[in-house]
Amino acid sequence: MTRKCSHLNSERDEILRNYELLVSRIIYPLSSNDSQIKLLSVQCSQCERRAVPLMCCCLKCPTFACLEHFKPHLFESKHNLVVSTTFGQVYCLECEDFIYDRKIERIRLKAENDHRRRLGLGLRNEWNPSSADAKLLRKAPKAYHMSKGTMRGLRGLVNLGNTCFMNCIIQSLVQIPHLRDYFLTDQHTCKFQLNDISEEIDEENLCLMCELSNIFQEFYNGPTEPFIPRRMLHLVWKHAEHLAGYEQHDAHEFLIAALNVLHQHSQSLSSQQAGVECKCIIDQLFTGRLQSDLTCMKCGRISTTVDPFWDISLDLGDGTSTDKTLEECLANYVKSESLGATAKIKCDSCGSYESATKRLTLKTLPLVACFHLKRFEHTPLNRRKKIRSPVRFPEQIDLSPYTTSYCTRVENGIGGCAANEMLIRSSNVYDLLAVVNHNGNTESGHYSCFVRHNQDQWYKVNDQIISPQVLESVLVSEGYLLFYTKSFIDYD
């Protein structure tokens, strides 16, 4: 990053005016209307992609393109300066470097804080390094650039005795870009305010968020030998006693227990008060809203409840089907079903118990969508059975057809998407991030996982062993837990 750029200084006043407009309307939109304008406008004029990390806008004209496709624009128009629509940083195409300018940074920080204030998030302040920080910066003055083929962020985990279920969840969480950025930028503040861990401290109060932060540091600080997640296992045992012990456990059960503890340990004191919406990082990433509609079959009255969810569990049927898709499982999930004569509801309108139908739809989508394929079920003899039916899942999926607004319009015969919803449909597209697989039967088995690292490179992680894979191998795996992340993030 350079501090001096002649191309900025020569047109400084005009560039600053245009930058201030772009940063408050496109980069950090201040209204729902601005958010929709961003979704409609931010698309590369060359390759037509939207979800590109280095999508930029020209600071001299309304041209959008990813950084690699801005070179022709430079030659044709002689416009040198562009701004990242994701981060708000200014890049000079001729200098081939990002520019640091105090005035630009203050404009960007003000716009970001206005945006965060509207969303009810904490405000960011200018960083003034302490003497200890300055000493570390002098010791390591160069930033580390994550090259495309880097293995940094990948590390095997030692199996501590039937702990493959935990290892797979850790590997999946570590690859979530939003969590990585959160922990590696030191955003977590321990609610227990512990500076060091000693034997005198009550172990019940040890922070699982702090340990996950430590794991991120271990994955990204350079060493490649397998990491021993002893402390993570110990803390989970302390806070989720049903998972204690070295017997085999379920990866899905561990995921939900871990998210619950992480959620508790990342909540602020104010968000723990009744009626205050939690905005901790776990809720921001994993929490969606599920709408349940009960319809009285006699009078048609609809009773609606909305509840939060961290994952979606999908039925696979009786296991006799030889070909299913994730889309078909989701379509069945949101399909209206009769509750039957033995499960009548009390209808307030009729004043009596009546037969009813129930329908579940996705009211609000999370940033990270986790799908649990229900491969284990109990037989009438109370024995566990594994369903091995193959389920084909895509690299990218549009969750719009399973949302409440979409399903309601289809049910009313209006059609899938309203005109204004077409603008935001791209924000409902998700990319596959990780796949957890279970090999074996209900009595004995082993978990392994596939993870996407550094945008488009896939690896199989089997405890300590990491091996590169092609996408086709991932998509034909059996699948037990599927993690997807939003392709395009709209913070409105």
Tally of distinct domains: 3
Number of strands: 23
CATH class of the largest domain: Alpha Beta
According to CATH, the fold-level topology of the largest domain is Cathepsin B, Chain A
Q: Report helical residue fraction.
A: 25-40%
Shape: globular
Instruction: Name the beta content range.
Output: 15-25%
What's the Cα radius of gyration?
A: 25 Å
Name the CATH superfamily classification of the largest domain: Cysteine proteinases
Question: Structural class of the secondary elements?
Answer: alpha+beta
Low-pLDDT residue intervals, each spanning 5 or more residues: 194-201, 419-424
Distance between the termini: 30 Å
Query: Taking all residues together, what is the mean pLDDT?
Result: 84
Largest sheet: 8 strands, mixed
Describe the structure in your own words.
It is found in: Nucleus. It is an enzyme of class 3 (hydrolase). With 492 residues, this protein is of the alpha+beta class. The chain folds into three domains: 6-118, Herpes Virus-1 (2-Layer Sandwich); 164-271, no CATH class; 287-486, Cysteine proteinases (Cathepsin B, Chain A), CATH 3.90.70.10. 31% of the residues lie in helices and 23% in strands. It has helices at residues 6-9, 12-27, 32-41, 71-77, 102-118, 131-139, 164-174, 177-184, 208-220, 230-239, 251-266, 281-286, 326-333, 404-411, 419-424, 471-475, and strands at residues 55-58, 64-66, 81-84, 90-92, 97-99, 288-296, 302-309, 312-314, 324-325, 337-338, 345-347, 352-354, 356-364, 368-373, 376-378, 384-386, 391-392, 396-398, 429-440, 445-453, 457-462, 465-469, 481-486. Strands 8, 14, 18, 19, 20, 21, 22 and 23 form an eight-stranded mixed β-sheet that branches. A five-stranded antiparallel β-sheet has the order 2-1-3-4-5, covered by helices on one side. A four-stranded antiparallel β-sheet has the order 7-6-13-10, with helices on one face. α2 (12-27) packs parallel to α5 (102-118). The longest helix has 17 residues, at 102-118. Residues 194-201 and 419-424 have low confidence and may be disordered.
